Structures are given as C-alpha cells and as structure tokens.
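Thread: Newbie trying to understand structure tokens

Hi all, I'm a second-year student working on a class project, and my supervisor (Dr. K.) asked me to get a predicted structure for one chain before our next meeting. I've only ever worked with sequences, so writing a 3D structure as a token string is new to me. If someone could post the tokens and maybe explain what I'm looking at, I'd be very grateful. Here's the chain:
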Amino acid sequence: MPVNRLVPRDGDGFVATRLYRRVRRGQHLDLFCLDMRSHRGPNPDSNPRVAGRRGEAGILGRAQEEWLIAELRRSTATWKVISADQPLSAPSTRETDLDGPANADDGRPLGREPEMARVLSAIKRYDVRNVVWVTTDVHYTAAHHYDPERAAYTDFDPFWEFVSGPLAASPFWTKDDRLDGTFGPRVAFSKGEDTDRLDVTPRPDNQYFGHLAIAASGELTVTLYDGSGAVLWSRLLEPELSSGRAAPLR
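---
Reply by user tm_fold:
Sure, no problem. This is what the structure looks like when written as tokens:
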C-alpha cells in the first residue's frame, strides 16, 4: 500500500514507527491497512511444536487492535475496507506454524483468534456499518461470506472477505475446503490451481486480482478478475444504515 512519508500524523495516516494506518479516500471510503507480521506471535493452539515459543499469541498486537477499533468507530465514510495480510480463516501450508489468524480448528477462538474475535465483536457492539475485508497472500482468488449463524463464535455481524493475488507468482490450490469454521465462512466463489505444486508458471488465466468500485450513490461493486482481465465473479453491495444501537463514544 502507498505510504505518504512526507506528512506524518498521529491517530491515522503514516507514522514513522509503524506500518498500519488509515487512508482516507473521500466521502465513501476509509481504507485501514493492517500489519499482521510485525506483531505476530505464536499460534500454539494450531501446532504443539510452537507451544513453548515466547510472546503473546496474537497477530495485530494490543496497540494495533485498539487503534483499529478506535479508528473504525471514528470513521464517517460509507465503507470501511480493512486490508489484511492473510485471510481470516484460511490455514497456511507451513508445517511449523500458521501464517494467519486461523488455527485450523472449527471451535471456539483459540491461539490468535481471540484477538480477531474482539475486533469483530467491537464492530458489532459499536454498530460500525459496511465493513469489508480484502486480503491476498494465498495465491488464489475467492469471495467469503461470514455469518454468526454458521459460526462457533457468534458475537459479530455478517461481513464479506475478498481474496486475490499476488500477481506474477506461482498460483496455489484453493484451501477453501479447509477453512476454519470459527467465524462461519461460506465460499461464494473460489478459483485457483488444481494441484499442490508450487512451481506452476504464471499465466494470464491463473493470475488474479480484485477491483472495488464505489458509485457516487454509495453502492460498492466488487469484481474478481484473472490476469487477462476476464471477469470471474462480481457482486454489488448496498450500504447498510446504522441500527442506532451503538455503544457511546468515550
């Protein structure tokens, strides 16, 4: 994500000592860029071999978690798009640990998942409307819908997560048959390789990117493409109005 190093600001925007930031794009969009690597602790509930590793089992860190919740509450943009480093529920292929928040267990939040559960619950508690997650890292493209009615952890509002990229990399097989069910993901669309080889040559038909377009009226259209520009999947999202049940700002 672009970083403006000329105008450091506290609270949002670029700050020299951190990567996470809020990027404002007018009336309808605030983009929240997360850092899910610098503060990533062990995920002991996903792999016994890392259970003794020091550090808190988080992925955002307490400061970033609190920052994200506070900035989402302050945002007046129609859409709050959270750019995450990894999908919330896709397990990694690494043997020693999992890269993302998930611990490959469909039950209650464990490992790094309690941190994400607190963020999702805060979004619901403070009635933050129109939150969409976008992510990459897994070398395929997908649209995931999360719903508490399908979840082991239920204290959150339904939301979408869109996955694409990276471009110009060997494509992976989709992991959507192994999504962690803690937050109730459902696969609306998914496309990747049908092999577990990691040396597949990048081609236009196996590279993927996504595009989010917001109309002047506030509707958000999400489109997933392959590298040739062919449309693979598209969805129009109508903005939701506040329910009026938000906890007060303090």
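A couple of things are worth pointing out once you decode it. The chain has one domain: 21-237. The two ends are 31 Å apart (CA to CA). Feel free to ask follow-ups in this thread.
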